[in-house]
Specification:
CATH topology of the largest domain: Jelly Rolls
Number of domains: 3
CATH architecture of the largest domain: Sandwich
Distance between the termini: 85 Å
Oligomer: single chain
Number of helices: 2
Low-confidence stretches: 1-34, 360-374
Strand content: 35-45%
CATH class of the largest domain: Mainly Beta
Helix content: under 10%
Largest sheet: 18 strands, mixed
């Protein structure tokens, strides 16, 4: 099959089947062995130690040191199988680590620092290589990287900042993220030549060059990719597929790569049917092929402050306990493979209930005395 040119604006999604997955380490990015810090690189078809050393380190001659450090990973014929994780000393890298910045946070999100400490995440918090972010129910955060690409981490997610670097003179960035479990939405700026933006899951490695997509990694080592902008190329087990905008793909560790499927179209959200607008009573159009629907209700248009994030098999939502204010509803269909389709969004204004005057319930019985009516 013909390969896509690196000069075309593609999103490369490389699905790798690995035998093991270390849930509680940060070995895919920078890690510390003794006093030495290492960054791990996933070896790909066409790579060589010389090429890796020349591209990522201060000298092509560093390939000899990299070979010694990774001697245990070499095959008897000294070949390196694709998918092998090579350890490269951080001191050899060209680009210094650059932190990411938290630009929005909802709930009590926690970051576990690479050094072992635990901190609460706030707007303006800096995230460094090796840091691990964990969100609980209805907790989320939005992260901005050196090139202004953004990653929104959804509730119940476990994400590690593997590598964050930025070559200030050229604008080249190297951003690598590991999604152990959970959901992320990402919007990546058009990348400079030789820049990298990757998200690794137990079943997939996504390499991005300017696009927007959702990525899910569940506890059964199944990943689901849903592309809303751009084009995606998928490589697994020597097989390559193209995934167009509006399509999705399911990758399951240890199983053949499934063909891309068209995502469900956006539904149509109706008006608020609550007669007095004190609550939300809304319906949306049923979609052919939808087995369920996901709805999110947020107090902001960017959905950084999500109040509800639920899945239902109904096409109607009734919420009567909302505080007065502006709300944004997002609904999308879910197909039989659990891929989620295009978003439909609508704004609703919830009105305050009028204050009731209870004095009408009083009747003057005797002069100077007020007693309640029984």
């Amino acid at each position: 099959m013909k390969r896509f040119s690196s000069t075309r604006l593609l999103v490369w999604v490389v699905l790798l089947c690995s035998a093991t997955w270390a849930q509680n380490s940060y070995a895919q990015g920078e890690q510390q062995l003794g006093q030495e810090q290492f960054w791990e690189y996933t070896f790909r078809p066409g790579d060589s130690l010389w090429k890796i050393a020349d591209e990522y380190t201060t000298s092509a001659n560093n390939w000899q040191e990299i070979q010694k450090i990774n001697a245990a990973h070499l095959a008897p014929d000294r070949q390196i199988p694709p998918g092998t994780r090579l350890q490269i000393p951080v001191r050899l890298l060209k680009n210094p680590p650059t932190p990411a910045r938290v630009i929005a946070v909802s709930g009590e999100v926690v970051v576990f620092r690479a050094a072992g400490s635990r901190e609460a995440v706030r707007i303006g918090s800096l995230l460094y290589s090796g840091d691990r972010v964990v969100t609980g129910g209805l907790q989320s955060l939005r992260i901005q990287f050196a090139d202004h690409s953004e990653l929104q981490v959804q509730p119940d997610s476990d994400v590690i900042m593997d590598k964050l670097s930025h070559h200030r003179h050229t604008g080249m960035v190297d951003t690598r993220i590991r999604l152990n479990t959970g959901r992320v939405n990402t919007r990546v700026k058009k990348q400079q030549p030789n820049s990298r933006y990757e998200i690794m899951t137990p079943a997939a490695l996504t390499a991005v060059r300017g696009t927007a997509f959702r990525l899910v990694s569940d506890r059964d080592n199944i990943s689901r990719l849903e592309v809303s902008e751009g084009r995606v190329a998928v490589l697994a087990g020597g097989e390559e597929r193209a995934v167009e905008e509006g399509f999705g793909l399911v990758a399951e560790q240890g199983k053949p790569l499934q063909a891309p499927v068209k995502l469900l179209d956006a539904t149509r959200i109706g008006d608020n049917q609550d007669p007095k607008r004190y609550g939300l009573m809304v319906e949306w159009r049923a979609l052919a092929g939808a087995s369920a629907y996901r709805y999110l209700l947020a107090s902001d248009a960017s959905f950084d402050r999500v109040l509800y994030n639920e899945v239902t098999d109904q096409t109607r939502l009734v919420l009567s306990d909302l505080q007065p204010g502006v709300y944004h509803l997002r609904v999308r269909g879910i197909d039989k493979t659990q891929l989620e389709g295009a978003n439909s969004e609508r704004r609703f204004d919830i009105m305050p209930e009028p204050v009731r005057d209870n004095s009408s319930r009083l009747e003057r019985i005797l002069p100077g005395a007020l007693l309640p009516i029984q």
